What does this fold into?
Amino acid sequence: MIRFASSLRRLRNGALWLAAAAAVGAAAPAWSAGHGIFEGADLALGERLIRENQCDACHIRRVGGNGHGIYNPKGRISTPGALRGMVEYCSTELNLQLFPEEVTAVGAVLQRDHYRFK
Ligand code: HEC
It folds into this structure.
């Protein structure tokens, strides 16, 4: 319980730091993830958010391996919009306070690496 609370606090600090970094990075050109709502998403930002918010660490506790087995085991997420919605839901639940562009960036990385919607 204590460990969980402190990891949540870490998550929140990380999000604040990232918010600052995102504000600085906003002027930089974003390159395209090339897919609908993820078009133009900042993939480097998404990768960093996934790493720094310990998405994999928690998913590994749930499914083992490298944690990637958590992504769409039953095809429940079937559209880019549903994927983005799930990222938003997780980030709200975890109180990550991501900006909309950050949610999109994370979704775009998951789309590229795991979901691969056509
Ligand atoms: C505290 C633990 C925890 C953390 C941290 C966490 N998740 Fe999750 N996540 C889960 C659990 C548990 C599920 C499975 C929910 C279910 O099956 O109903 C899940 C499911 C998901 C799914 C849906 C998978 C699918 O296709 O059905 C996505 C997408 C996701 N997480 C993204 C993220 C992202 C992105 C982050 C980091 C910003 C993150 N999660 C951090 C626990 C966590």
